[in-house]
Amino acid sequence: MSRNWAARLRPVVLDGLRAVVLENERLRVTVVPGKGGDVVEFLDKRSDTDFVWLSPQGLRDPAGHLRGAGDDVALFTDDYEGGWQECFPNGGAPSEYRGARLAQHGEVAGLPWAAEVVADREDEVAVRLSVRTRRMPYLLEKTFRLRSGTAVLEVEGRATNESDVPLHAMWGQHLVYGRPFLRPGARIRLPEGLTVVPHDGAITPPERRVLAGGPWRWPVVPAHGGGEVDLSVVPEPGTPSDIVYLTGFAAEGWYEVTGDGPGLRVEWDATVMPWLWMWQELGASTGHPWWGRAWTVGLEPFAGMPTNGLAEAVANGTALTLGPRGTRRMWLRAEVLA
């Protein structure tokens, strides 16, 4: 039903890609089924604040990209517009699983998804996206829901093993933040008592923020090179890049990011995604693919760690398991804090 009030939904074409806009009195959310089901806008209408970081290269259709010297990392980074992605069935670096070579962050972030409107009423709109992976026998589904009068996006996901053999997967929500929402000095709140596991090496050698080893206790941890670093405070541009993994959540995980303007609270099913990856790309990486232009922090609920790919997550026991014809479900809520 066509309307321009309360909860509403409309299909659009964005930079040549199929997209869907979900909107109500408080929020406007733009999802791109034509490229990975990416969220490229999460706009608080009252303050005109977009919580999604967009990369300098912007949104572009992978199908129209004449690739250069392609590799399994470039499959993701060449068309990475920022935004929020689904990572499945691989997380992080390329990896090989039972003969299947999996690219950076898996298969689904670069694929076109089918989209079906499942609710279109004044009180609620919802769209369900679905895609099948090509190198592993998975069906992935994701429903975005927006209710009238709220500042909350609700997400429900379902992964199904369509084979008769047990399989593993990494499954993550690649949520990244930057300007205009994120500013130096912004605060990241998390439950008390979490454990911080540093990545085994620097992601942009030789510099990093957090001392290797650990595990440490959130939020103040030993710094690389001496002293301490408070991970709950977003640092200035030019700070070294790093990634750490947080664990110790109850059944419901949550975090809040607050600063001078509106904040954001994210809640998710930590029984399925017990890890929170904290990725910090803060402008100090002057080579490919960032060239010093990225200032962003990712706070990414994940099943599996580290960012070395599925094979390592299987070996360390953190990968998700799906039995023959088995299904795993997840949920996530993102809410604007006034």
How would you portray this structure in words?
The chain has 338 residues and is mainly β. 3% of the residues lie in helices and 44% in strands. It has helices at residues 74-77, 310-316; strands spanning 8-14, 17-23, 27-32, 38-44, 49-50, 85-87, 95-97, 100-102, 114-121, 124-132, 138-147, 152-161, 167-169, 171-174, 176-177, 187-189, 195-198, 216-217, 220-222, 228-230, 242-247, 252-258, 263-269, 275-282, 295-303, 320-322, 327-337. The strands form six sheets. Strands 6, 14, 15, 17, 18, 21, 24 and 25 form an eight-stranded antiparallel β-sheet that branches. Strands 9-10-11-12-27-23-22-16 form an eight-stranded antiparallel β-sheet, with no helix packed on it. A hairpin with a 3-residue loop joins strand 2 and strand 3 (27-32). The model has no long low-confidence stretch (mean pLDDT 94).
